[in-house]
Amino acid sequence: MDQLTLSNATIRALVLAASSSDDESEVFCLWNCVLPLVGLDVPHGYSITAEKRLDNRGKKSSRADLIVRVILSGVIVMIVECKSIAHDNLIDWNTTEEQLNEYLQKAHCRNGVIAIGHKCKFYHISDRFVPHEREYDWIRDFPDIIERLVSFTRTLSFQ
Length: 159
Hints:
26% strand; alpha+beta; 7-stranded mixed beta sheet; 4 helices; tt1808, chain A; globular
């Protein structure tokens, strides 16, 4: 965990790539690399699945970008929906929020993240979909994002 700072060259490169590329895969790569570093990994009982289909109904199936699940039970504990920085506008944030809400409902999952470029918002469902309380920026708010993820990981138990 000591190396999980922006001063780490690898982490910095991932954040900068996500912040400057129109390629969604750079955002995906950032989250796919950071989530295991905060304890969402195999030694702690979690797996990260990419492009997970959430249903098979209809012609257009729902595929979440990243899903974190408990390996033994299969319970999905987090969904991360990634978009390139080109989607950093009000319309795309709102559209992606609707998409995440749909994915969370279909997966019976309570926790989600929208990641657009180097920015992100956290979401939670209790009895209703609770939108973000703030927008985080990996460059400006790196310690806050990591703390938020570590705190989330600490609240999980093998379900």
